[in-house]
Design brief:
- The chain is mostly helical and 154 residues long.
- It has 2 domains: 41 residues, no CATH class; 108 residues, Rossmann fold.
- Helix content is 44%, strand content 10%.
- The protein is built from 6 helices and 3 strands; from the N terminus they run H-H-H-H-H-E-H-E-E.
- The protein has a 3-stranded parallel beta sheet, with helices on one face.
- Strand 1, helix 6 and strand 2 form a beta-alpha-beta unit.
- The longest helix has 18 residues.
């Protein structure tokens, strides 16, 4: 469980201690996820459809009314509606630190993260790719978002 430090602060601290090389990034990721196993997993449309069909009930419990389709991040162990936005806030820090003008989100779900970021960063263009073109209708009206349907894994 993450303490009060943000996830990106923890990673930056660890990377500084490990010379900040690309290999260090991969080693940190490999400590959390088995990269070799992930690379060798089947990853076609059949697996993706199976994932959503079998996880449908779980997703219905996790989705916020605002369209966030993921777990929230809570630093104090108490659920708050704002926790759903923390992933987008972490991404926003990187967008601003790098003065990004174009951002790509893969598997945008219902588009809530892109909508949140696009509204707060109107000079940045956000493109998203997902298998199903199912963003919430209210998000498609935001001028600096482009939703596309496609399989980014092929």
């Amino acid at each position: 469980m993450v303490s009060n430090q943000s996830i990106d602060t923890v990673f930056k601290q660890q990377l500084t201690e490990n010379n900040s090389s690309f290999e260090s990034y991969l080693n940190l990721i490999d400590e959390i996820f088995d990269i070799t196993q992930r690379i060798n997993e089947p990853s076609g449309q059949e697996q993706i459809i199976d994932y959503y069909v079998h996880g449908k009930n779980s997703f219905l419990l996790l989705v916020s009314l605002e369209g966030f389709y993921h777990y929230g991040i809570s630093y104090d162990g108490r659920y708050k509606k704002e926790d759903f936005r923390e992933q987008a806030r972490i991404a926003e820090r990187y967008i601003r630190e790098n003065d990004a003008k174009n951002v790509l989100e893969l598997a945008y779900g219902m588009g809530a993260n892109m909508a949140f970021l696009a509204r707060r960063n109107p000079s940045v263009m956000f493109d998203g790719v997902d298998l199903a073109l199912k963003p919430l209708k209210r998000f498609t009206k935001i001028s600096n978002i482009n939703f596309q349907s496609g399989d980014y894994m092929t």
